[in-house]
Design a protein that fits this description.
Layout: H1 2-22, E1 30-37, E2 48-51, E3 57-59, E4 65-68, E5 74-81, E6 88-94, E7 99-101, E8 104-106, H2 113-127, E9 133-137, H3 138-143, H4 153-157, E10 163-166, E11 172-175, E12 183-187, E13 190-191, E14 210-216, E15 230-236, E16 245-250, E17 254-264, E18 272-282, H5 284-291, E19 305-317, E20 323-337, E21 341-356, E22 363-380, E23 386-403, E24 406-424, E25 430-449, E26 454-455, E27 458-464, E28 469-470
Parallel strand pairs: 1-7, 1-8, 12-15
Antiparallel strand pairs: 1-4, 2-3, 2-5, 5-6, 9-14, 10-11, 12-13, 14-15, 16-17, 17-18, 18-19, 19-20, 20-21, 21-22, 22-23, 23-24, 24-25, 25-26, 25-27, 27-28
């Protein structure tokens, strides 16, 4: 069985890189494009895109991208609509052996929050398999009553059935009975090994820049793996592509701010360059002496918790819809109690993710190159400090090929992981233990959608170099 899996994995890797050449030629009569909010440049997710007077239509994906493939050549009227926006019609042309790109900007109109949420859920159910998968939007997170008036994804997750979180000195997330180490938390594709702050009420993620969150609690899709309990996949948005703006807020727990805007404004026939930078810092270590005096260490020392978060992204979108995002983050926590111990931990990382739309093919390519680092140090009274870290480098490529009412997805990911533990024993001898390993994974899935049925077979292979085994 091991040899068969190894042979199958080699065949799969060969297919991954042969498929782009196989499908390089364009399908006859194809168009694609993005649907954006005309005021912010944000993608409009799950908008309806149909050819008026025909049965051909589709929905935009989570990047606002739509594809119409295999349509008889000729001229049509493209109708784009979504609740909360004004309907837009545009003349389009399907040509032989070419793929035309049409950028659509929808103007916000009358809005009904409840109806929009229901509509988006309905469109998602029509286009994808959602076994044990929960989608969470920024609006849903902010609609939930929250501690200290600070909306947070951690607090929203606790209302999902089967999810339990523990607070105090760093939270832990238990999903469907699994331990915290059996969960994978992803931020723009990078693993966050400790996503909770020392206070326990808040996560490291800034709600204002979240685009969407996928919570998978079992029966993962083929593109996900590496854990057995749950996956929380968080994607952030781009900065405003039309105008500069920002906001600052404060509570007894923290102060935070965000600034965003275009370095090159989005225009109909051109690309855009935008950015955002967000930061938040706890102040409870100072306010607790007065507001929460009963919980302070003593009269001069408040609660011994503190954190500082910083996240930034620079986004470039080309005229044909391809996009490149450079991002980086640093989430710093500390628990400093002079009577007991000092504990400090930090998540840091960054990378580049991109989405390429070749003009001569119905293939799209998504990629990620980045690293994630987590380290923690503990210093107890009269003891030498102990430090451990885990560092991960990742390279991932996903290919998507579109047919008429169906889609083929396949991809490969390579991770290099280093773990390290440093300490000085009572005899003042410094010890450094470390291990390096590699993980290689690949997947393939096919999705066929009918009016009320979605069929999605798929498979995944994963190789663990340290074990020399496939799964």
């Amino acid at each position: 069985m091991m040899n068969f899996r190894g042979f199958a994995f080699r065949i799969f890797i060969a297919i991954i890189f042969l498929f782009p050449g196989i499908f390089l030629g364009a399908q006859e009569g194809s168009i694609r494009g993005h649907v954006y909010d005309s005021e912010t440049g944000e993608p409009v997710i799950y908008a309806n895109v149909i050819l008026e007077g025909t049965t051909y239509g589709t929905n935009t994906d989570e990047n606002g991208l739509y594809n119409l493939v295999g349509i008889p050549i000729g001229e049509y009227t493209l109708k784009v609509s979504f609740i909360g926006y004004e309907e837009l019609k545009q003349d389009v042309e399907f040509k032989k052996n070419s793929i035309n790109y049409y950028k659509i900007n929808l103007n916000p109109g009358g809005i009904n929050i409840g109806v929009i949420d229901i509509s988006a859920e309905r469109q998602q159910a029509r286009t994808e398999v959602r076994v044990s998968k929960i989608k969470v939007s920024k609006k849903q997170i902010k609609a939930l009553p929250s501690t200290g008036g600070e909306a947070d994804i951690l607090q929203y997750l606790q209302v999902i059935p089967g999810v339990i979180s523990t607070g105090d000195q760093g939270g832990q997330l238990f999903i469907r009975g699994g331990s915290p180490v059996q969960n994978k938390i992803l931020l723009d594709g990078l693993t966050i090994y400790n996503p909770f702050h020392s206070i326990g009420f808040f996560s490291t993620f800034e709600t204002e820049v979240i685009r969407n969150v996928d919570v998978l609690t079992g029966a993962f899709n083929a593109e996900h793996g590496g854990r057995i309990s749950a996956i929380v996949d968080i994607s952030t948005r781009e900065g405003n592509k039309k105008r500069f703006g920002g906001q600052v807020s404060a509570s007894p727990f923290m102060v935070k701010g965000i600034i965003e805007g275009p370095l090159a404004k989005m225009k109909d026939d051109k690309g855009s360059l935008s950015m955002f930078l967000t930061s938040k810092k706890s102040i409870i270590e100072n306010t607790s002496k007065d507001v929460y005096s009963y919980a302070a260490v003593n009269d001069t020392i408040g609660l011994p918790f503190g954190f500082t978060d910083t996240y930034g992204k620079l986004s470039f979108v080309t005229a044909n819809g391809s996009s490149f995002n450079v991002f980086g983050f640093n989430f710093d926590d500390n628990y400093n109690n002079p009577l007991v111990s000092d504990i400090n931990w930090k998540n840091s990382g960054g990378g580049l993710n991109f989405n390429l739309l070749p003009s001569a093919s119905s293939l799209t390519l998504n990629g990620l190159v980045g690293f994630s680092n987590y380290e923690i140090s503990i210093t107890e009274a009269d003891e030498n400090p102990r430090t451990s870290l885990i560092r991960e480098y990742v390279l991932g490529l996903d290919f998507n090929y579109f047919f008429n009412k169906s889609q083929l997805d396949y991809g490969v990911e390579v991770k290099s992981i280093r773990t390290e533990f440093e300490f000085t024993n009572p005899f003042d001898i410094f010890l450094d233990q470390f291990q390096n390993t590699t993980e290689i994974s690949g997947f393939m899935k096919f999705r066929q959608a009918w009016d009320r049925v979605v069929f999605e077979p798929g498979f995944r292979l994963q190789y663990y170099a340290s074990l020399g085994e496939f799964s």
